[in-house]
Amino acid sequence: MINVENIEISRIIIHKVHKKREGEDFGTAEYSENLFRFGEAELETLKERIATAFSKNKRFFKLQIDDDEADSFYSYSLEMKNSSDEKFITKSKSIADLLAKSHDKKTIPSGLLLIMDGRINNKHFTLVIKAELQVAFTIRELNNQKLVELINDLFLSPAKDFYKIGFLLEENILASETNEKHSCYMYDDNFSSGKKDLAEYFYSTFLGFNSNSNDKLVTKNFYEDVFKFIDTNIQGFEDKRGLKNAINVLYRENTSGIINPQEFGEDHFTDELLRRFGTDIGSKYPNSFTKDLTLVDRKLHRGQIVLLDDLKIEGPQEALGNVSVMSGNNINYEQLRLQIENGEIKQIVTIKTEL
What we know:
Layout: E1 7-17, E2 29-30, H1 40-54, E3 60-65, H2 73-80, H3 85-102, E4 111-120, E5 123-132, H4 144-156, E6 163-170, H5 178-181, E7 182-188, H6 200-206, E8 209-210, H7 215-233, H8 237-253, E9 258-259, H9 261-268, H10 271-282, E10 289-290, H11 297-301, E11 302-308, E12 311-316, H12 317-320, H13 333-341
Antiparallel strand pairs: 1-2, 1-4, 3-7, 3-8, 4-5, 5-6, 6-7, 9-10, 11-12
């Protein structure tokens, strides 16, 4: 976790980025020409809100820098370090243009873009915040006081979190590799464990980061993809349950902290299924990864049994171990009768055929 107690914000500027309109290839940026001045109280509250966002482990992710070309967010951020205010404003406009170009779908909303730089423990950082707007306005028509009120409402109210954050931090400027020189992060308030990825337009197209090496996301997505593969390719309730239990056991009890997708496939699938597993799953996860259960911990203790497309049984994994599903020709009626009579089976649920 990043310790932001010592964060020193040097400069802030606010631009607006409009959504894509009919006939346009992407959105457009509306620039401010001056640095934005917070009062001391507002600035301290902003720091607190940034610290709160960074502490939300299920929405704050360490990523990798993918794009370090001359016209990238990374390069513009480096040029801001120790720059004049005039150059800072110019480069901030270039960053606003990058966000506008990432608005290549009409579903991506307009927003305010805060761009700031400063230092943490004497290391330079650039931080950008995009807030989605619920009200239409132009920057030029607002006086400074009204803009302060809007910023307070969007960022400083504890009840509202409609924003995304990109963060680039200097690590070792003498290193040879880009990702050793700087680390990068993203906070996405709209991310939930039900999503496969963060907002790609923001972290990838705009910031030039990638999420392929984030252990929280890889751990979650491999787990869900294996479950989907089992449901699609395995026949028979008990076989499905056994394989799903195997991935649960691997996640819960593996002590090395390393998950090897290829090894899991070889241990649990026949040759034909292993080839299919390699095509569907192995190609997406070619390397071992460090297990991080942040986004799947609840699923490991709860599970579900799919009866029909729109009907499921859900509950603790331990309790679901006592559930059996029989259908069609695989029902042994005599054995079932005996199990009911001796109390081994407590309940039977029937599902009628739709006529």
